[in-house]
Design brief:
heterodimer; A: Arc Repressor Mutant, subunit A; Glutaredoxin; 16 helices; disordered C terminus; B: alpha/beta; five-stranded mixed β-sheet; 21 helices; about 15% strand; globular
Chain lengths: ~350, ~675
């Protein structure tokens, strides 16, 4: 923060355009009589928008007069908020966050870029394109360091992509808003660690095989759900054809293929299937009855086998929802399952949401 | 009432008390900077932190937490407050350390030094070292007017000054721009403040950020002798403290008097002090060959005696001015009685008030504190903002409290509160003469000199009395018929009967050409006395009265004599002497006593106490200092007088707030304020 003063060179007068005036009157009318001063923020903001994104003294006085406020009260508001620019700004006005999270993530380097490319704070470049000011936290700490340029946030900056961003803006080339590293909203940098069945490890709901490659298509969470719904409807239709007293095996056989079982655990030592989230003592016993004793057996289940087991255990779809297969694969490889509170990423696991999508 | 335990002491306090008030009731001292009894609660200095059990588990700002917001203990025990626990002490030390981070160590060159809240509290509640090694914040000083000097590095952002100007003074001129450590107190674009009460922000400032400009680097508080006295700049009789050093009055500060000025005083009251040092009449003067020449007491007395001997009593007169105390008016009246003179008057503004209507006809009957109870106020021919700024603040306070109707008959002025404008001339008052009683319990009229100090003043007064009776302003148990005088001496003069006797001339008749041959002028500077009469001027300053005088008898200004002044409510108050008159000047009563000897009409008292004894015997109510003697008046008879009304608007008689008397006109500070006000006036007219 710096001491904020009105600009030295001021326009002689300010008046809202007819359209803005009408809008302002509507804003003022939102507040009960005697409380018109409450409309000061929207009015100052609109005045700033109308005046090339800065507030001249005349605008402050005009707004104060419209709201029946002493000019001092309006000046207090205008100087309090850093969103109100009291002197002319560039076409692209950079508000650079310098608060702790951004500072820890390198906003000092961005400041150097600003100083180099633009000059000192509140200085407008000769071509009128750029100006910058350091502000307090803008509330995008997850994607620190970040800047706000005019109305948009640009996040995950480093000196290189920030320099490029400024160059692109000045040159009028299209720029990507938000994260400059391709991150979606404020998800972890390495991809999702949770909810991956819904959103995919990259957060875009794409199959894992394509996760590393740039994703052209938009996330297809809707497709995934459609798929699952279609499969469930299919299973339901097939079960409906069976007689009411059909055994679980008969039902399961009608929708899938029974996975091959072992007659007993290898080396007489079964894996602790309960480490898989979703498998409790009952399901473990029933899996044992099917000859399923090891994580690698579950990890190797094919689609028809998943359908068979799901139907046999009378909970179609749950194996997918609880990601038994991918959990088992991870556990078989000595990794963590979902049941443990292990935060190491599960990226690289072959199966997962892709099973549903496929 | 709610039970609460403070520092182990259980007591009963009203639930709406703040913790700070409750702690004070328990006898615990709570340090504070931003909190002030008469301002809204800001809670931003954090100095008043206390430990509270039954509230959030952290130090609590006691000024902003109400007793009713505390929870009782699990078994219904009363909430517990600790004002001196280790937690509270540590919290205060921390706050103090933060406050001192950016506060400069310039106490040796700071005018506030020695009477600084921050200094005192740092000694009492602070730690002895600072852990802060970075540069301190630097803030530009601001221009905010002729009376208040700023030193903004020292500001601790308590916002008392902002709250005072906004809430009490009613002008939203001061404000805080920026935020955080960049917050700065300033006026809009550093314009001069316009309030007549702005000097009070200096008293409110707990540090040396706002100090009095005229007092800048003049004195240290501990070298001043303090005299408690009464103000004479307006008719309120505000309680003041005169700080003097040697023979010089260095400054004037307010004292608390809840009945009158609470703790505010107007800028004229506060800053008129430098006018006591300039233009002073410090020796007698005699006009020789049309020119005033320095003379001696025996010579001037001889000249007056010669003139008096040659003049018949009917051609002699006396006028008492605005700043005269009761004693000297009593002495002058006694002298005139001895000489058989009936031409005496104390109403130099030409007001038509008269003791013959009864004492209540010229008093502020509801009392000033009564404004707090009024539910309707009609201001008639007055501009309280300049006639009595402190009273105006009281009306504003009443208006802020809500449910109070205010009307104005007279000029349309900015009174710092909204009002219904009822009209300019007396005819707008006529509408209320036959009005059904107002639907108000305590309606009030405030009549200024603009209503009754005009040729048809008696008719206006009569009309006002009629309206007062019909509206229920005067009724059983409530008298809201209030006269707002603008001169400190006026009520005293009227109480003494310092008005024309049988067949006597009034002020205008005395002052006009050929009215009199010999005129005793006791400090009346606001009238033009036509040439012709031989004028004996008893006064303090080389002002209008002295210029017109043929003989000047140098008197004592109000801080230089003891005396009783009766304020507009009819409350006699005693003004103490702080310093002595300059040179050959003497106290006025003593001059009159000596003069009486020279005129061969020796007054029967040789000392001020003898004079007072005689005065009190003649007017017993003046002996009851600080009390208001219940006053009566026959309002029905007053209302029946009637009379022809002039259509001219009721205009306040004060043209320039800052220059209403000789002392103010001699003051450089007042001249500066006046020039600023004139410039504003011109700008507004453009």
């Amino acid at each position: 923060m710096t001491v904020r003063r009105l600009a030295e060179i001021q326009p002689a007068s300010f008046a809202f355009t007819a359209e803005n005036e009408a809008w302002a009157q509507k804003e003022i009318a939102k507040f009960p009589p005697g409380r018109q001063a409450s409309a000061i923020l929207p009015l100052l903001w609109r005045a700033q928008e109308q005046n090339a994104y800065w507030l001249p003294k005349a605008a402050i006085e005009t707004v104060a007069a419209m709201l029946d406020m002493p000019p001092m009260r309006a000046l207090e508001v205008a100087t309090f908020y850093s969103m109100f620019n009291l002197s002319p700004v560039g076409r692209h006005h950079v508000q650079l966050c310098g608060t702790t999270p951004c500072m820890l993530r390198g906003s000092e380097d961005l400041k150097k870029v600003c100083e180099q490319k633009i000059g000192h704070q509140n200085h407008v470049t000769a071509d009128g394109a750029l100006s910058w000011v350091e502000v307090e936290c803008l509330g995008a700490c997850c994607n620190a360091p970040m800047v706000q340029i005019n109305n948009d946030y640009y996040e995950d900056l480093d000196p290189q992509n920030f320099t490029k961003l400024l160059d692109d803006l000045v040159a009028g080339r299209p720029v990507v808003k938000g994260s400059q590293t391709g991150r979606v909203s404020s998800e972890p940098v390495g991809g999702l660690t949770s909810l991956t069945s819904l959103y995919g490890v990259d957060g875009r709901g794409a199959p894992p095989a394509q996760a590393s490659a740039p994703v052209a298509a938009e996330p297809i969470a809707a497709d995934i759900e459609a798929h699952a719904a279609a499969e469930e409807a299919d299973i339901k239709a097939k079960l409906a054809t069976l007689p009411k007293d059909a055994t679980p095996e008969m039902k399961a056989d009608s929708v899938g293929a029974r996975p091959a079982g072992l007659s007993g655990a290898r080396a007489d030592k079964a894996d602790d299937l309960q480490r898989i989230k979703g498998i409790g003592p009952v399901n473990e016993r029933r899996l044992h009855e099917l000859g399923i004793f090891h994580f690698d057996q579950i990890a190797a289940w094919t689609r028809p086998e998943i359908r068979w087991v799901g139907t046999y255990l009378s909970f179609p779809g749950r194996i997918d929802r609880e990601q038994w297969v991918s959990q088992a694969a991870s556990l078989a490889a000595g990794g963590p399952g979902l049941k443990t509170h292990d935060s190491s990423p599960v990226s690289g696991v072959k199966t997962g949401a892709g099973d549903v999508a496929g | 009432m709610t039970k609460i335990i403070i520092d182990g002491k259980e007591l009963d306090v009203p639930a709406e008390y703040t913790l700070l008030q409750a702690c004070e009731a328990a006898g615990a001292e709570i340090p504070r900077f931003c909190f002030h009894e008469r301002l809204s609660i800001a809670g931003n200095c954090r100095m008043c932190l206390v430990e509270v059990k039954g509230g959030p588990p952290k130090p609590t700002a006691s000024c902003a937490m109400a007793v009713r917001d505390l929870r009782p203990g699990p078994k219904g025990e009363p909430p517990v407050v600790e004002t001196n626990s280790p937690m509270a002490r540590k919290a205060r030390e921390g706050v103090m350390e933060f406050l001192l981070i950016n506060h400069p160590l310039d106490c040796p060159i700071c005018d506030q030094g020695g009477e600084c809240d921050l200094q005192d509290q740092a000694m009492a509640y602070g730690v002895d070292t600072s852990r802060y090694h970075e540069n301190k914040r630097a803030v530009e000083n601001k221009y905010i007017g002729a009376l208040v000097k700023t030193s903004m590095n020292r500001c601790i952002h308590c916002t008392r000054c902002v709250r005072f100007t906004t809430e009490v003074a009613g002008v939203s001129e001061l404000g805080a721009i920026g935020r955080g450590e960049d917050m700065e107190i300033t006026t809009y674009l550093e314009k001069a403040m316009t309030s007549e009460l702005q000097g009070n922000v200096v008293d409110l400032c707990p540090v040396g950020a706002l100090t009095a400009k005229p007092y800048e680097f003049h004195a240290r508080p501990w070298e001043l002798s303090k005299t408690e006295s009464v103000d004479v700049m307006d008719a309120l009789g505000s309680a003041i403290r005169i700080d003097s050093r040697g023979r010089e009055v260095v400054r004037i500060l307010p004292r608390i008097n809840e009945a009158i000025n609470e703790e505010w005083i107007s800028d004229k009251t506060r800053h008129v002090a430098d006018g006591l040092k300039t233009q002073r009449l410090d020796r007698p003067y005699l006009r020789v060959d049309g020119k005033l020449t320095p003379s001696t007491w025996p010579q001037v007395f001889a000249a007056i005696a010669a003139k008096a001997k040659a003049t018949s009593a009917a051609r002699i007169g006396a006028i008492a001015g605005d700043l005269a105390s009761v004693e000297e008016m009593f002495a002058l009246k006694a002298l005139m009685d001895k000489l058989g003179v009936a031409n005496i008057d104390c109403r130099q503004d030409g007001s038509r008030l008269d003791p013959k209507f009864g004492r209540a006809s010229y008093l502020f009957n509801s009392t000033i504190a009564g404004i707090d109870e009024a539910d309707a106020i009609m201001i008639i021919g007055a501009n309280p903002r300049i006639e009595a700024p402190v009273l105006n603040a009281r009306i504003r306070k009443r208006w802020l409290k809500g449910n109070c109707l205010i009307g104005v008959v007279g000029q349309k002025l900015d009174l710092t509160y909204p009002y219904n404008y009822l009209g300019a001339g007396p005819e707008s008052l006529a509408a209320f003469a036959d009005h059904p009683p107002a639907d108000k319990a305590k309606p009030m009229f405030i009549l200024g000199a603009g209503a009754f100090a005009r040729p048809d003043g008696e008719a206006v007064l009569s009309l006002a009395a009629k309206a007062a009776l019909s509206l229920g302003v005067v009724k059983d148990g409530w008298n809201g018929f209030n006269i707002l005088h603008s001169a400190a001496s006026r009520v005293g003069g009227l109480d003494l009967g310092f008005t024309p006797g049988q067949g006597g001339l009034d002020v205008s008749a005395m002052a006009k050409a050929g009215g009199l041959d010999l005129l005793f002028n006791l400090g009346a500077d606001e009238i033009d006395i036509a040439s012709g009469a031989f004028v004996v001027y008893i006064g303090t300053h080389g002002d209008r009265g002295a210029h017109r005088a043929d003989v000047i008898l140098p008197g004592a200004a109000y801080p230089e004599k003891t005396g009783v002044y009766v304020n507009t409510e009819g409350r006699p108050q005693f003004a103490e002497r702080a310093t002595f008159p300059p040179g050959d000047a003497r106290e006025d009563w003593a001059i009159l006593r000596a003069l009486s000897d020279a005129l061969g009409a020796k007054l029967p008292f040789d000392s001020l106490s003898q004079l007072r004894a005689a005065l009190n015997a003649a007017h017993p109510h003046l002996a009851k200092l600080d009390e208001i003697e219940p006053a009566q008046a026959d309002f029905a008879a007053l209302a029946a007088i009637g009379g022809a009304l002039d259509k001219a608007p009721l205009v306040t008689t004060i043209a320039d707030f800052y220059l209403t008397n000789p002392i103010a006109r001699a003051s450089k500070t007042m001249a500066e304020c006046s020039a600023l006000a004139q410039a504003r006036h011109l700008q507004a007219a453009e």
